[in-house]
Amino acid sequence: MPRLLLLAPLRAQTGNGTTAQRIQDHLESAGHSCTLWDTYGCESPSAVAQLVSSGNFQGAFGIHLYKAGRLLQGIRIPFGIVFGGTDINEDIKCAEKVQVMEKVLDEARFAVSFTDAMKETASVYWPWARNKICVQSQGVVTSPNAFFNWKKFLQNAGIPQDHGSLRFFILICGLRRIKDPFYLVDAFTEWHREDPSVYLIIIGPAVDPVFAEEVKEKIKRVEGVLLLPEIPMEDLHAVVKKCFAVVNSSLSEGMSVAILEAMDLKVPVLARNIPGNAAIIKHKLTGLLYSSPQVSIKSKKSFTSLFAHDTKASLAKHREQRLFGNLCICIYVSPYTIQP
Protein backbone atom coordinates (compact mmCIF):
# COMPACT_ATOMS: atom_id res chain seq x y z
CA MET A 1 0.00 0.00 0.00
CA PRO A 2 1.59 3.33 -1.08
CA ARG A 3 2.43 5.71 1.73
CA LEU A 4 1.74 9.35 0.87
CA LEU A 5 2.57 12.57 2.70
CA LEU A 6 0.08 15.45 2.42
CA LEU A 7 1.60 18.76 3.48
CA ALA A 8 -0.73 21.75 3.92
CA PRO A 9 -1.55 24.78 6.12
CA LEU A 10 -3.92 23.19 8.62
CA ARG A 11 -5.40 26.01 10.64
CA ALA A 12 -8.75 24.82 11.96
CA GLN A 13 -11.89 25.80 10.06
CA THR A 14 -10.02 27.28 7.09
CA GLY A 15 -10.37 26.45 3.40
CA ASN A 16 -6.98 24.82 2.85
CA GLY A 17 -7.32 22.80 6.04
CA THR A 18 -10.78 21.56 5.06
CA THR A 19 -9.61 20.71 1.54
CA ALA A 20 -6.60 18.82 2.91
CA GLN A 21 -8.80 16.72 5.18
CA ARG A 22 -11.08 15.81 2.29
CA ILE A 23 -8.15 14.86 0.07
CA GLN A 24 -6.77 12.67 2.84
CA ASP A 25 -10.15 10.96 3.32
CA HIS A 26 -10.42 10.30 -0.41
CA LEU A 27 -6.89 8.90 -0.73
CA GLU A 28 -7.40 6.60 2.22
CA SER A 29 -10.76 5.40 0.91
CA ALA A 30 -8.91 4.52 -2.32
CA GLY A 31 -6.59 2.24 -0.37
CA HIS A 32 -3.60 4.52 0.22
CA SER A 33 -1.96 5.40 3.49
CA CYS A 34 -1.97 9.20 3.76
CA THR A 35 -0.36 11.21 6.55
CA LEU A 36 -1.52 14.81 6.91
CA TRP A 37 1.16 17.23 8.13
CA ASP A 38 0.87 20.92 9.01
CA THR A 39 3.25 23.31 7.25
CA TYR A 40 3.33 25.39 10.43
CA GLY A 41 4.99 22.47 12.21
CA CYS A 42 7.86 22.26 9.70
CA GLU A 43 10.73 24.71 9.94
CA SER A 44 12.66 23.85 6.78
CA PRO A 45 12.93 21.51 3.77
CA SER A 46 15.47 19.46 5.73
CA ALA A 47 12.84 18.80 8.41
CA VAL A 48 10.45 17.52 5.75
CA ALA A 49 13.22 15.42 4.18
CA GLN A 50 13.82 13.82 7.57
CA LEU A 51 10.07 13.23 7.96
CA VAL A 52 9.92 11.59 4.53
CA SER A 53 12.86 9.35 5.34
CA SER A 54 11.61 8.27 8.75
CA GLY A 55 8.06 7.75 7.48
CA ASN A 56 9.14 5.76 4.42
CA PHE A 57 6.84 7.79 2.14
CA GLN A 58 6.74 6.99 -1.58
CA GLY A 59 5.05 10.19 -2.75
CA ALA A 60 3.85 13.57 -1.51
CA PHE A 61 1.24 16.25 -2.11
CA GLY A 62 1.48 19.88 -1.11
CA ILE A 63 -1.40 22.35 -0.84
CA HIS A 64 -0.18 25.92 -1.47
CA LEU A 65 2.62 26.49 -3.94
CA TYR A 66 4.61 28.64 -1.52
CA LYS A 67 3.79 27.51 2.03
CA ALA A 68 3.93 23.79 1.27
CA GLY A 69 6.01 23.93 -1.90
CA ARG A 70 9.07 25.56 -0.35
CA LEU A 71 9.20 22.71 2.18
CA LEU A 72 9.04 20.04 -0.53
CA GLN A 73 12.04 21.38 -2.44
CA GLY A 74 14.77 18.82 -2.87
CA ILE A 75 12.93 15.82 -1.44
CA ARG A 76 13.84 12.53 -3.08
CA ILE A 77 10.32 11.33 -3.79
CA PRO A 78 7.87 12.45 -6.51
CA PHE A 79 5.42 15.12 -5.44
CA GLY A 80 2.53 17.14 -6.82
CA ILE A 81 1.41 20.59 -5.78
CA VAL A 82 -2.10 22.03 -5.43
CA PHE A 83 -2.55 25.80 -5.75
CA GLY A 84 -4.10 27.13 -2.56
CA GLY A 85 -5.33 30.59 -3.60
CA THR A 86 -3.18 33.16 -1.82
CA ASP A 87 -0.10 31.66 -3.46
CA ILE A 88 -1.27 32.57 -6.98
CA ASN A 89 -3.31 35.63 -6.00
CA GLU A 90 -1.09 37.29 -3.38
CA ASP A 91 2.34 35.66 -2.98
CA ILE A 92 2.86 36.13 -6.71
CA LYS A 93 3.31 39.85 -5.97
CA CYS A 94 6.53 39.18 -4.05
CA ALA A 95 9.59 38.65 -6.28
CA GLU A 96 11.37 36.50 -3.70
CA LYS A 97 8.38 34.18 -3.33
CA VAL A 98 7.95 34.00 -7.12
CA GLN A 99 11.48 32.63 -7.40
CA VAL A 100 10.78 29.98 -4.77
CA MET A 101 7.48 28.97 -6.38
CA GLU A 102 9.14 28.72 -9.79
CA LYS A 103 11.67 26.23 -8.43
CA VAL A 104 8.90 24.24 -6.74
CA LEU A 105 6.85 24.11 -9.93
CA ASP A 106 9.92 22.96 -11.84
CA GLU A 107 10.51 20.08 -9.41
CA ALA A 108 6.85 19.03 -9.11
CA ARG A 109 5.60 16.14 -11.24
CA PHE A 110 2.31 18.01 -11.71
CA ALA A 111 0.29 20.94 -10.39
CA VAL A 112 -3.44 21.27 -9.76
CA SER A 113 -5.40 24.51 -10.13
CA PHE A 114 -8.98 24.78 -8.88
CA THR A 115 -9.93 27.23 -11.65
CA ASP A 116 -8.95 28.14 -15.20
CA ALA A 117 -8.26 31.68 -13.97
CA MET A 118 -5.60 30.51 -11.52
CA LYS A 119 -3.98 28.38 -14.20
CA GLU A 120 -3.87 31.35 -16.57
CA THR A 121 -2.29 33.56 -13.91
CA ALA A 122 0.35 30.93 -13.16
CA SER A 123 0.98 30.48 -16.89
CA VAL A 124 1.75 34.19 -17.29
CA TYR A 125 4.61 33.85 -14.81
CA TRP A 126 5.70 30.36 -15.82
CA PRO A 127 4.56 29.70 -19.41
CA TRP A 128 6.80 26.65 -19.63
CA ALA A 129 4.69 24.96 -16.92
CA ARG A 130 1.30 25.34 -18.65
CA ASN A 131 1.09 21.68 -19.69
CA LYS A 132 2.06 20.58 -16.20
CA ILE A 133 -0.94 22.34 -14.63
CA CYS A 134 -4.28 20.54 -14.70
CA VAL A 135 -7.55 22.21 -13.72
CA GLN A 136 -9.66 20.27 -11.25
CA SER A 137 -12.45 22.00 -9.38
CA GLN A 138 -12.90 20.90 -5.81
CA GLY A 139 -16.17 19.61 -4.45
CA VAL A 140 -17.69 19.36 -1.00
CA VAL A 141 -19.71 17.12 1.25
CA THR A 142 -21.98 18.78 3.80
CA SER A 143 -23.32 17.12 6.91
CA PRO A 144 -25.53 19.47 8.96
CA ASN A 145 -26.17 18.41 12.54
CA ALA A 146 -29.78 17.21 12.60
CA PHE A 147 -29.98 17.85 16.35
CA PHE A 148 -28.54 21.36 16.31
CA ASN A 149 -30.39 23.67 18.71
CA TRP A 150 -31.00 26.81 16.67
CA LYS A 151 -32.92 28.63 19.40
CA LYS A 152 -30.12 28.08 21.90
CA PHE A 153 -27.60 29.26 19.32
CA LEU A 154 -29.51 32.53 18.86
CA GLN A 155 -29.88 32.93 22.61
CA ASN A 156 -26.14 32.43 23.22
CA ALA A 157 -25.38 34.93 20.45
CA GLY A 158 -27.58 37.52 22.13
CA ILE A 159 -30.05 37.74 19.25
CA PRO A 160 -33.63 38.63 20.28
CA GLN A 161 -36.11 36.00 19.18
CA ASP A 162 -39.28 38.05 19.44
CA HIS A 163 -39.28 38.59 15.66
CA GLY A 164 -40.84 35.91 13.50
CA SER A 165 -38.98 36.77 10.31
CA LEU A 166 -35.34 37.44 11.12
CA ARG A 167 -33.01 37.31 8.12
CA PHE A 168 -29.46 36.21 8.75
CA PHE A 169 -26.58 36.67 6.35
CA ILE A 170 -23.47 34.73 7.31
CA LEU A 171 -19.84 35.46 6.48
CA ILE A 172 -17.67 32.41 7.18
CA CYS A 173 -13.98 33.25 7.31
CA GLY A 174 -10.82 33.06 9.33
CA LEU A 175 -10.19 36.56 10.63
CA ARG A 176 -7.32 37.89 8.51
CA ARG A 177 -7.00 40.92 6.26
CA ILE A 178 -7.31 39.05 2.97
CA LYS A 179 -10.89 38.09 3.97
CA ASP A 180 -11.75 41.79 4.46
CA PRO A 181 -14.73 41.37 6.83
CA PHE A 182 -14.85 45.17 7.36
CA TYR A 183 -15.98 45.53 3.75
CA LEU A 184 -19.63 44.82 4.56
CA VAL A 185 -19.93 45.85 8.21
CA ASP A 186 -21.01 49.47 7.74
CA ALA A 187 -23.45 48.61 4.96
CA PHE A 188 -25.12 45.89 7.03
CA THR A 189 -25.24 48.18 10.05
CA GLU A 190 -27.12 50.73 7.97
CA TRP A 191 -29.45 48.07 6.60
CA HIS A 192 -30.15 46.77 10.13
CA ARG A 193 -30.98 50.31 11.19
CA GLU A 194 -33.54 50.50 8.39
CA ASP A 195 -34.77 46.95 8.92
CA PRO A 196 -34.06 45.46 12.40
CA SER A 197 -34.84 41.95 11.14
CA VAL A 198 -31.58 41.87 9.14
CA TYR A 199 -28.38 40.59 10.77
CA LEU A 200 -24.88 39.81 9.55
CA ILE A 201 -23.12 36.97 11.37
CA ILE A 202 -19.33 36.75 11.00
CA ILE A 203 -18.05 33.39 12.18
CA GLY A 204 -14.59 31.87 12.15
CA PRO A 205 -11.26 31.51 13.95
CA ALA A 206 -8.86 34.33 14.80
CA VAL A 207 -6.23 33.39 12.22
CA ASP A 208 -4.50 36.77 12.65
CA PRO A 209 -4.91 37.62 16.38
CA VAL A 210 -3.99 41.29 15.94
CA PHE A 211 -6.47 41.79 13.11
CA ALA A 212 -9.10 39.77 15.00
CA GLU A 213 -8.90 42.29 17.85
CA GLU A 214 -9.50 45.11 15.36
CA VAL A 215 -12.60 43.31 14.12
CA LYS A 216 -13.89 42.77 17.66
CA GLU A 217 -13.43 46.43 18.56
CA LYS A 218 -15.21 47.55 15.40
CA ILE A 219 -18.19 45.26 15.92
CA LYS A 220 -18.59 46.35 19.54
CA ARG A 221 -19.52 49.79 18.21
CA VAL A 222 -22.15 48.74 15.66
CA GLU A 223 -25.55 47.09 15.67
CA GLY A 224 -26.83 44.27 13.52
CA VAL A 225 -23.44 42.59 13.12
CA LEU A 226 -22.34 39.68 15.30
CA LEU A 227 -18.89 38.12 15.62
CA LEU A 228 -18.83 34.48 16.71
CA PRO A 229 -15.98 31.99 17.17
CA GLU A 230 -15.64 28.90 15.01
CA ILE A 231 -17.94 25.96 15.74
CA PRO A 232 -17.81 22.29 14.66
CA MET A 233 -18.34 21.75 10.94
CA GLU A 234 -21.64 19.88 11.35
CA ASP A 235 -23.03 22.68 13.52
CA LEU A 236 -21.82 25.31 11.05
CA HIS A 237 -23.65 23.57 8.22
CA ALA A 238 -26.81 23.53 10.34
CA VAL A 239 -26.45 27.29 10.95
CA VAL A 240 -25.93 27.96 7.23
CA LYS A 241 -29.18 26.14 6.43
CA LYS A 242 -31.01 28.58 8.70
CA CYS A 243 -29.50 31.64 7.04
CA PHE A 244 -30.97 33.74 4.25
CA ALA A 245 -27.68 33.83 2.35
CA VAL A 246 -23.96 33.18 2.65
CA VAL A 247 -21.82 36.23 1.85
CA ASN A 248 -18.19 36.51 0.81
CA SER A 249 -16.09 39.68 1.06
CA SER A 250 -12.59 38.38 0.29
CA LEU A 251 -10.01 40.43 -1.56
CA SER A 252 -8.93 37.23 -3.28
CA GLU A 253 -9.94 33.57 -3.28
CA GLY A 254 -8.73 30.34 -4.78
CA MET A 255 -12.04 28.52 -4.60
CA SER A 256 -14.16 29.33 -1.56
CA VAL A 257 -15.18 26.20 0.34
CA ALA A 258 -17.86 28.22 2.17
CA ILE A 259 -19.51 29.15 -1.14
CA LEU A 260 -19.42 25.56 -2.39
CA GLU A 261 -20.91 24.31 0.86
CA ALA A 262 -23.68 26.91 0.68
CA MET A 263 -24.49 25.73 -2.84
CA ASP A 264 -24.59 22.13 -1.65
CA LEU A 265 -26.95 23.18 1.15
CA LYS A 266 -29.11 25.08 -1.37
CA VAL A 267 -28.57 28.43 0.38
CA PRO A 268 -28.21 31.58 -1.79
CA VAL A 269 -24.72 33.06 -2.11
CA LEU A 270 -23.78 36.73 -2.37
CA ALA A 271 -20.10 37.17 -3.16
CA ARG A 272 -17.59 39.86 -3.97
CA ASN A 273 -16.88 39.99 -7.69
CA ILE A 274 -13.31 38.69 -7.78
CA PRO A 275 -11.90 36.08 -10.20
CA GLY A 276 -12.00 33.20 -7.70
CA ASN A 277 -15.69 33.80 -6.94
CA ALA A 278 -16.67 34.56 -10.53
CA ALA A 279 -15.17 31.20 -11.52
CA ILE A 280 -17.89 29.34 -9.60
CA ILE A 281 -20.78 31.84 -9.52
CA LYS A 282 -22.73 32.85 -12.59
CA HIS A 283 -24.39 36.14 -11.68
CA LYS A 284 -28.15 35.76 -11.11
CA LEU A 285 -27.93 32.13 -12.21
CA THR A 286 -26.09 30.38 -9.38
CA GLY A 287 -25.75 33.37 -7.05
CA LEU A 288 -25.16 37.12 -6.93
CA LEU A 289 -21.86 38.94 -7.46
CA TYR A 290 -21.32 42.49 -6.19
CA SER A 291 -18.61 45.10 -6.74
CA SER A 292 -19.22 47.38 -3.75
CA PRO A 293 -20.98 47.15 -0.36
CA GLN A 294 -23.53 49.71 -1.53
CA VAL A 295 -24.40 47.61 -4.57
CA SER A 296 -24.59 44.43 -2.50
CA ILE A 297 -26.89 45.86 0.15
CA LYS A 298 -28.90 48.47 -1.72
CA SER A 299 -29.77 46.35 -4.72
CA LYS A 300 -33.26 45.77 -3.42
CA LYS A 301 -34.40 44.29 -6.69
CA SER A 302 -31.78 41.54 -6.46
CA PHE A 303 -32.69 40.79 -2.87
CA THR A 304 -36.38 40.80 -3.67
CA SER A 305 -35.71 38.27 -6.40
CA LEU A 306 -33.93 36.09 -3.86
CA PHE A 307 -37.07 36.09 -1.72
CA ALA A 308 -39.15 34.72 -4.58
CA HIS A 309 -39.68 30.98 -4.18
CA ASP A 310 -39.41 30.28 -7.90
CA THR A 311 -36.14 32.17 -8.19
CA LYS A 312 -34.63 30.44 -5.17
CA ALA A 313 -35.67 27.10 -6.63
CA SER A 314 -34.06 28.05 -9.94
CA LEU A 315 -30.84 29.08 -8.20
CA ALA A 316 -30.78 25.80 -6.32
CA LYS A 317 -31.34 23.83 -9.52
CA HIS A 318 -28.48 25.55 -11.35
CA ARG A 319 -26.18 25.25 -8.33
CA GLU A 320 -26.90 21.53 -8.13
CA GLN A 321 -26.14 21.14 -11.83
CA ARG A 322 -22.93 23.09 -11.28
CA LEU A 323 -21.84 21.04 -8.30
CA PHE A 324 -22.60 17.62 -9.68
CA GLY A 325 -21.93 18.39 -13.33
CA ASN A 326 -18.53 20.01 -12.99
CA LEU A 327 -17.16 19.34 -9.52
CA CYS A 328 -15.70 16.22 -8.02
CA ILE A 329 -15.89 15.23 -4.38
CA CYS A 330 -12.13 15.40 -3.97
CA ILE A 331 -8.88 15.71 -5.86
CA TYR A 332 -6.72 12.72 -6.60
CA VAL A 333 -3.92 12.69 -9.12
CA SER A 334 -1.41 9.86 -8.80
CA PRO A 335 2.18 11.05 -8.43
CA TYR A 336 3.29 7.85 -10.11
CA THR A 337 1.46 8.22 -13.41
CA ILE A 338 2.14 11.81 -14.42
CA GLN A 339 5.55 12.51 -15.85
CA PRO A 340 7.23 15.93 -15.90
Overview of the molecule:
It is a single chain. The protein is an alpha/beta fold. The chain folds into two domains: 3-136, Glycogen Phosphorylase B (Rossmann fold); 150-325, Glycogen Phosphorylase B (Rossmann fold, 3-Layer(aba) Sandwich). It is 42% helix and 16% strand. It is built from 15 helices and twelve strands. The strands form two sheets. The protein has a six-stranded parallel β-sheet with strand order 2-1-3-4-5-6, sandwiched between helices. A six-stranded parallel β-sheet has the order 9-8-7-10-11-12. Helix 12 (275-278) links the parallel strand 11 and strand 12. It is globular. The chain starts with a strand and ends in a 14-residue tail after the last helix. GO terms for molecular function: glycosyltransferase activity. Residues 172-294 form the Glycosyl transferase family domain. Keywords: Glycosyltransferase, Transferase. This is Glycosyltransferase 1 domain containing 1.
